[in-house]
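Because discrete structure vocabularies remain unfamiliar, we first show an illustrative case, written as a sequence plus integers encoding its fold.
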Amino acid sequence: MTEAFFERPILNSPYEYPGRHWELDDEGQPTGQIIEHRRRAEFITPIPKPKKHKAAAAQGRIVFDEGAGVSTSAQQYDPTPIINELRRRVDQWRAINNPSHWGVSPETARLLQHWRHHEFSGIRPFFCQIEAAETALWLTEVAPNDRAGKGFLDHLANANNDANPELMRMALKLATGAGKTTVMAMLIAWQTVKAVRRPQSKRFTRGFLVVTPGITIKDRLRVLQPNDPDSYYASRELVPIDMLDDVNRAKIGSPTTTRSSDASASSCRRAAAPCFRAASAPTWTPSRARARCSSASCQS
């Protein structure tokens, strides 16, 4: 191992595309070589076992091991996630210069331009935060009209059906400290603006339910409330000024879970009531804890 890595472990700006990385050996140690492209996502993803089985389907399941030698009949693993391909598709889409060719609505294009190019007076969104929001937007507005995009949607639908039927779930994974609350605010703003300005659409909502594990986290997430004095939409300039009135129409419930399942369920029902009245479609809400949102809920 060379000293170069320790002298300069960080190669990329947090505000720019991560176009370089330190090479790692088979044991995960830096070799001292800089690779001039983004590090691939390389990890083993467990495939959840179906929660429901028909009695007639008692025969043994085929084990798909992909040559990794880690899958068993009790637990399957998929060492070839589709994340890298999805990243590539979103990268190609991001590189399109003309907003009219993005395949999104004018409201969405306006928010994307704001997040990417606005001269923030304070805290500026990191690239990973914008990329997370871009991925959700791409899967929602672009993918349904794209052949390759439909393949990702089919993959998500099949995975959800196998792992947890009747509850559609989508997750955005960000590193600890990356700023998931900001991503939540960006997605809430996008969904709410779309729901308010396009009330005839069933794909967007202004009702959200954010479930937190305790009072401390719940208090931290109050910045997601549009009427909070420190609301991220205004204080962090995540929304253009002319869109703030639209965002103010968001309904956000935030119950806390407890050790008592009955108490937690009651708290969720009380917080969910105004959200469901405002909701018309499922949405995305990544959180430090677990976020469940309207209609056909999603979690992360």
Summary: The chain has ten helices and seven strands. Confidence is low (pLDDT under 50) at residues 55-62, 280-300. The first strand starts at residue 21 and ends at 24.
